[in-house]
Request: fold
Amino acid sequence: MERIALGPFETSRVALGTWAIGGWMWGGTDEAESIAAIRAAVERGVTLIDTAPVYGFGRSEEIVGKALAGGLRQKAEIATKCGLAWSDGKVFRDSRAARLRTEVEDSLRRLGTDVIDLYQVHWPDLETPFDETARVLEDLKAAGKIRAVGVSNYAPAQMDAFRAVAKLDAVQPPYNLFEREIEADVLPYAAANGLKVLCYGALCRGLLAGRIGLDTRFTGDDLRRHDPKFQQPVFANYVAAIDALRDFARERFGKSLAALAVRWVLDQGPTIALWGARRPDQLDPVAEIDGWRLDDAAKAEIDAILARHVPEPIAPTFMAPPEKRP
Ligand code: NAP
Reply:
């Protein structure tokens, strides 16, 4: 597994995403399968585990803690987040200093660890000065509770405000073949300022994993029941693109669609691809990632496939929590 420097440590360029492991917005969770998936990830060299308090309202962090207990913690790097609060199942942004000081202790307890490797502000809190949030994270680092600092879903101007008072190591935006908005701003900003980019939704919520088709149905609170990409008539365009990309991956490289999608993310800059998985077998294509690259000609062919089938891609804005606190 390729590795990359992130703040004071090295980590894997493919990270395990554990939102679905929390169950909330993914139709529930199976704890035993989830623990097996986390352990399988670390065994396969996917040592960076990304979680958040809000994923299952503490459940994802607790499951990560259980999976890494008993020695595996030393082989893994934990990335978690702060700055989202919840009440009666409703989520809102809160990156005020007092909230973050409480949150870090809650996360450390749930994760069963004494240090968080990467601590990320989950969404920009527009009602709290960015320097207030940044200062707390600097303090937490000085106190040895966190090792590196990241932000998620921040625009460059918001990162400028943050970096005026604190060192920033990473940014976590959405990025995959179908969601490429960051190419206009966040990606060049990160490259110019030495930030690592943890790309979430590298598989576009499973679309690019290769097993979703026109007859796939989602149940319970699964967010894909409401994700605009998964609604007709546009869903058919995405499925047509997937079919064409799957053929391209197989014919040109002898690879799966999932491997092509993740390789593409890794070949776009100082990136880490987050791979959401909740069963060990979902990580099988990880073995196909290393040892090859997409050159400019291959990227151009991919762009042509995308332009043909999805000329007007839909941004993932539906996931944003409300900007104002209740
Ligand atoms: P994703 O990685 O694009 O897709 C994950 C889903 O793809 C899985 O839950 C699984 O769906 C399916 N999948 C994965 N491997 C597969 C395989 N080999 N075969 C078939 N299906 C496969 O989506 P994501 O979980 O939204 O994003 C990844 C991570 O990014 C999250 O877990 C989280 O850590 C992070 N994230 C962060 C933010 C943020 O605001 N910072 C937002 C979103 C996500 P099923 O299990 O349903 O089959």
Notes: Residues 234-253 form the longest helix (20 residues).
